[in-house]
Specification:
Blueprint lengths: L4 H14 L14 H9 L5 H14 L2 H6 L12 H12 L4 H20 L12 H6 L31 E4 L3 H12 L4 E4 L14 H8 L24 H4 L9 H9 L8 H14 L10 H13 L22
Parallel strand pairs: 1-2
Length: about 325
Amino acid sequence: MELNERQWRALGAICDTFAPGTGGAPSASEMGVPRVLADALDMNPREPDRKQVAQLLSLWDTRLLTALGGGGLDHFSALPPERREQVLLSWCDSRLPQRRAAFQALRKGALLFYYMVPVVPGEHGARSPVWDAIGYPGPLGPPENAPPKAIRVLGVDRDTDLECDVCVIGSGAGGGTAAGVLAAAGHDVVVLEAGDYYDDGDFDGGELEGYGRMYMYGGGAATNDQSVGLLAGSCLGGGTTVNYTTSFRTPDDVRAEWASHGVPGFAGDEYGRSLDAVCERLGVNQEHNSPSSREQVLHRGLADLGWHVDSMPRNVRGCDQGENCGY
């Protein structure tokens, strides 16, 4: 997005209000977050959405909009941090869904990229001091001696004729499963996937580049009111490539609810056997699920509240518990 000076000033002030930098950590602007956030907005193919953001940033640093947020008659960028926080919180708690949606989008964008930017801009690759402040050692990097890619894909960059019995659109959990079942039944299947193909040697653990390469809209998709983020894979394998490998069977009460809507098969034995087959094919187990330090904090909180806590079943086998699983 090509922003003017006023828009950049507004975006920088917003990001710095969410992430002002404390305890020796730099602010969001010092980490280049406004630029990264603007680049991420470019990944949204919907021009009306991009225009809405630009219009909001054009108005944000005006005295009128600041006054409407309870900030007085100053420009938002000229307010002290505590008053900027009050203005943003007025958007968070607004009775207008559009203002709440704008707050959620700005909050998620500013904080997500603040913790993901790997290096300090202009300091010759110096790693993020934000990571040091939260005790994050950084991504592991690509694995050594990664095996060659097992799938040979056909890149289509011009009009191409292909013959098949079935064309499956999308290679994620639904499309991939359908293609596998149909191919096993003897059908000639073509799987059409918009995203690129990534495998072991491409996975370095870097969040910022990973979101940009492998997630729809760079990970910024959400419901219309921004209340729920939608993390969808945009690569070969779709959500099965970027998920956390958590593999829950459909709960019995959910199956019963689905059956009550006119599809009794969900509550039957055949559906249960299908779940068994999927879990067997994926190798679902509870032996490779060491909780990370983040999840250990969540575990302690749930235990203190007396809430149910259990290990996650995951479709992972042979995963090092110290370096990869649980990292």
